Amino acid sequence: MTANLYPHLMAPLDLGFTTLKNRVLMGSMHTNLEEQPGGFEKLAAFYSARARGGVGLIVTGGISPNIEGVVFHGAARMDDEAEVPHHRIVTDAVHAAGGKICMQLLHAGRYAATPAAVAPSAIRAPISPITPRELSDEDVEKQIEDYARGAELAREAGYDGVELMGSEGYLINQFLVARTNQRTDRWGGSYENRMRFPLEVIRRVRERVGDDFIVIYRLSMLDLVEEGSTWDEVVTLAKEVEKAGVTIINTGIGWHEARVPTIASSVPRAAFTGVTEKIRSEVSVPVITCNRINTPEVGEQAIASGQSDMISMARPFLADPDFVAKAEAGRADEINTCIGCNQGCLDHVFEGKMTTCLVNPQACREDEPEVQPTDAPRRIAVVGAGPAGMIVAATAAERGHKVTLFESRTTLGGEYELAARIPGKEEFFETLRYYKKRFENAGVEVRLGQVATKEELLAEGYDDVVVATGVRPWTPPIPGLENAEYLDYLDVLEHGKPVGKRVAIIGAGPIGFDVAEYLTESDEHVHQGKEGFMAEWGVDTQFEARGGLTEPKPMPAVERDIFMLEVRDMKVGKDLSKTTGWIHREVLKKRNVQMWGGVTFKQVDTGRVELEFRGEEKSLDVDTVIVCAGQRPRADLAEELEGSGVKVHRIGAAQEARGMDAKVAFAAGLELARTL
Fold first, then answer.
1. For residue 470, how many C-alpha atoms fall within 13 Å in the half-sphere facing its CB?
2. 13-350: what CATH class?
3. Cα dist. 134→120, 175, 178, 370 in Å?
4. Which of 213, 238, 387, 559 has its CB 3.0 to 4.6 Å from that of 209, i.e. a possible disulfide?
5. Containing H/E element for 251?
6. Please, what's the largest Cα pairwise distance for the chain?
7. Alpha-helix residue ranges (DSSP H) falling in 402-460
């Protein structure tokens, strides 16, 4: 029997009327499955896969208790008996898989993207175009009753409990702070009055569902906005919440409008567990910690050190539904780790798309047929070990094919590995660790540092060749550039060529931003663990300042002057990730990087860039020009092999570079591997 490497994480938690089999909560995240045709069947498959994977308790994505509280038009709500049978499909599937599940009741308040939006006061959120209607006293009573009714229906639908979303700047949170509650009646004014709303919600929910039903309260411990709660108010609320009858207190960090990163890959692991530890000493009910916990080691440490009673992870269960089972079996090195990129999950949600996962394209498609073993094994060569090549090689070998993976570099990952070198993207290395283990388990022969030639591939007698050779940098047609000395992003990130003090970066897409961050990072900058991160973004590590905010520490001077120059007339960085792009822009702004959009290049020579910006002619004297203006496929091998008798498959950027990124490449690679 395998020794339990994570005894605290895997220990049962006795709640009195029920016991959780371990200390791992699958935290709430919206998937947009709820609104899909056949959405509840899809949700049932999604959640039951995580229940089979061993998670102790699941919390659903936010479900509104009424039509005013929906996050967007048509979003799911629990306000009618007619909804109960749909949810029964989900709860029955989770229970059949040995799991427990709670419904999160979430009222968006002023964050609701509908004309029906309501709030304690008619104050528009900075991230919303809609000014909410102020609730009357009678309206407030109705909202409380709707919460209680939603919880009652959740119990009828077979849920093991509910989580009341009291953080992240949603309705309950809006009642708690003067920033959003300027009322003068019994629901506003003093803190005693402002916390009346959440306490009434909890009391009436508990009355309606009885004592043998889990009630979790998600408490905003760090609002990270001006005029947020003080620590004394947070403690007062936590104690009153316990008295009102909650089973567990969950941690909430940051409002959606906060200008502090909380879940991006650049946020240190377990960055906010300290605040949970501080509240844990004030209450006797179990307390859950959350945010940027993505390995069992981090979770074990949080519980073993007394910082929390449970851990909450959401996106890590997108990346790997078997996270808990693998950890419990001593196979943590086989976990497909969440890299915190947000590209397939939060970005998709905010764009109205169905959630998926960059590193696990099967996420939210659990109702589709699984990859099946082949009944006709073949010899397959995969050329290129970027995202598309890695997933094709691993999946094809697991299906039963004999696979050889060729990579001209001496490392796996292709340009994905280059991205992992960017400060704040170190999590990307976890994906490479995961694939190394898959290759080992599946028997993939990996040949690093070897260029696959047509002659060699034909001589070795492969039945299929998958060309996943990725991209090469593209040089735009700028006057003078063809005769100038310049670098491309590979020269900088892969080959380490020297870069001067004054730098012009041509192109301000994701690669341009990566290069700029790479060139402006120093040992004195942010990536020095929690303390350095908190100092840069102005988070009070003592948690005593209102909202948890303090003055950001001035960043040390950057040794380089960098100009990012973009031809497209747009806000520079507009095409970055919807939920993390602002972080990259803010970082470069702090490092005094000049970001110019709508540039017209007149002439580029060695050491000089002539351009027009905002109607003004400019001449930049620089030491180095770096071109990050786009990419073109490397498909030479595929063309050479055409007509040779071997079956050739182009995949990833070797097929189409435009719009290609790791998320698209992993997904395309999986689909190809299904058919080989």
1. 26
2. alpha beta
3. 6, 11, 14, 49
4. 213
5. strand 248-253
6. 84
7. 415-419, 428-442, 454-459
User: 520 and 505 in contact (C-beta within 8 Å)?
Assistant: no
- Is 191 among the residues known to form the active site? no
- How do residues 260-315 score in pLDDT, each as one tens digit? 999 999 999 999 999 999 999 999 999 999 999 999 999 999 999 999 999 999 99
DSSP code of 232? H
Question: Of 618, 583, 51, whose CA–CA distance to 264 is shortest?
Answer: 583
372-378 long-range contacts, Cβ below 8 Å, gap at least 24?
372/399, 372/674, 373/399, 373/400, 374/399, 374/400, 374/401, 374/676, 377/401, 377/402, 378/402, 378/463, 378/464, 378/676
Taking the C-alpha atoms of residue 415 and residue 191, their distance in angstroms, rounded to an integer, is 52
What is the fold of 379-472+632-675? Rossmann fold (3.40.50)
Instruction: Please tell me whether the overall predicted TM-score, pTM, comes out greater than 0.85 for this model.
Output: yes
Long-range interactions of 478-484: CB distance < 8 A, separation 24+: 478/506, 478/601, 478/604, 479/601, 479/602, 479/603, 479/604, 480/603, 480/604, 480/605, 481/604, 481/625, 481/627, 483/605, 484/604, 484/605, 484/606, 484/625
| pLDDT, tens digit, 9 for 90 and up, residues 367-413 | 998 999 999 999 999 999 999 999 999 999 999 999 999 999 999 99
* 6, 111, 147, 170: the active-site residue: 170
Residues in a beta bridge with 166: 219
Rounded CA separation 627/619 (Å): 17
Residue type, 155: R
Query: Can you give the residue ranges of every domain in the chain?
Result: 13-350, 379-472+632-675, 475-522+558-629
Find residue 504's DSSP bridge partners: 563, 625
Domain 475-522+558-629, CATH 3.50.50.60 — does that match?
yes
Contact predicate 106/64, CB 8 Å:
yes
> Which position has the token pair 């001496």?
410
